[in-house]
Write a structure and sequence with these properties.
With about 375 residues, this protein is an alpha/beta fold. The protein folds into two domains: about 5-120 and about 365-370, Enolase-like, N-terminal domain (Enolase-like, domain 1); about 125-360, TIM Barrel, CATH 3.20.20.120. The chain has 14 helices and twelve strands. Strands 4, 5, 6, 7, 8, 9, 10, 11 and 12 form a nine-stranded mixed beta sheet that branches. The protein is globular and about 60 Å long. The chain starts with a strand and ends with a helix. The structure holds magnesium ion. Magnesium ion binds near residues 197, 224, 225, 250 and 300. Magnesium ion binds next to loops. Its cofactor is Mg(2+). This is L-alanine-DL-glutamate epimerase.
Length: about 375
Amino acid sequence: MKITDVEVMCLRIPTRGEECVWGEDAVLVRITTDTGIVGFGEADTSPMVVRSFIETPNSNLACFGLRELLIGENPLEIQRLWDKMYESSSYAGRRGAGIHAISAVDIALWDIASQHYQQPIHMLLGGKYRDRIKAYGTFIPADKPEDNKALARELLDKGFTGMKFGGGLFGNDFDHDLNVIKAVREEVGDDVTLMVDLVSRWRTFGNALSICRKLEKYNLEWVEEPIPSDDLDGYSRLAAAATQKVAGGEILSTRYEFKDFIERGRPDIVQPDITRCGGISEMARIRDIADLNGVQLVPHGFSTGILLAATVQFLAASKHGTLIEYSQSDSPLFTDLVGDLVPLEDGYVPVSDTIGLGSQLNWDLINQYRIDY
Ligand SMILES: [Mg+2]
């Protein structure tokens, strides 16, 4: 089997405006083979940068575009192709956007392998540990603290027993944040697991620790990205001193960044995104580093149904893969891009035994939102 084409599709919903809200864009990669098998992957990042990284022509030995590296190759040689892409794009790649592009390709290669061998991806990864995975829901809090009661109630009604909020105004002003947390805790009661996402807004170790202490009585399961994940020293001091678990890492890529983050930052929970960290292959290596260090891996995931399906397959085949983030986005790129979106059932997602990622893509929607700039 040989790869005959690698295509990149950039999607954007114009009505969502310029501001970054939820699921306003997506970038998909389609890999075609000479046997007729087609694989899909995605990256949750800047669509046009991924497109450039894949389509750019070779400029020198360390500046190949991924498309040129992949055409004519056997798509089943996933590990060798990962290394080939990494090494031959190393001037512009190695971290960030270059790895985001490799992530999308890697996911598409696993999709192809599953179809070729006629086995679910979790079988190719070593077999599934469970038939369903507990999910938690994430929402952006409303500006008025009281209005968050209704948002939390909606998630409860859907069956979630865990929820996380962050973004919007949250994280900028302690009194405001406290009122939001109080309102949500009051609404959901003591048995629901609550997490907060600070998107680095607590800035420093000292500030974050003092806020963590004031929030102790609200029994938060974890505080996510309280400070920038580049501040490894701050992370390790906070994780040691706070009573809440400290989580982070969604913007990091490759086993190398995660090795530093896990071994020096000492978080309690690490959150690689399968479409940014290097794909299914690299996520498995990051999981092994997390396991070796007694750190829990709870992937970040907030894009299309392709990301969701890939994350479910990966977690099913991971010994400690017991918790998944389930997007609450109302963007059609989440709700309607994939015909067979992984459902939420009583607060859990089922582990599908379908072949490949099962991505029956909605081509009307793709054609509606596709942009070529
Ligand atoms: Mg986050």
